[in-house]
Design brief:
two-stranded antiparallel ribbon; little secondary structure
């Protein structure tokens, strides 16, 4: 029997990491590392927090927002995505 794995493209269809906040819910890489677009973690690849409490790489949520312009929502819980403003 052959099992074919389907590739998920950024849509929150996985459920096993919802309790973990150490990884980005979009690219599923650790926050210690940078997003797939960047080579090095740090200031060039910041981490942002939404009012719903989810944390993502800035680049990841930007990419998500751009692909979903009419419905700017958190990919994890579909709540309206608003950045938490840090002092
Ligand atoms: Zn990410
Ligand atoms: Zn990045
Ligand atoms: Zn959320």
């Amino acid at each position: 029997m052959k099992i074919t794995l389907k590739q998920y493209n950024g849509v929150a269809t996985w459920r096993w990491n919802t309790e973990t906040e150490d990884i980005c819910g979009i690219c599923r890489l650790e926050f210690d590392a940078c997003c797939p677009q960047c080579l090095f973690p740090g200031e060039t690849c910041p981490i942002v927090e939404g009012t719903c409490g989810h944390i993502f790489h800035k680049h990841c949520i930007e990419k998500w927002s751009n692909s979903d312009k009419n419905n700017k929502s958190c990919p994890m819980d579909r709540l309206p995505w608003t950045l938490v403003k840090k002092p």
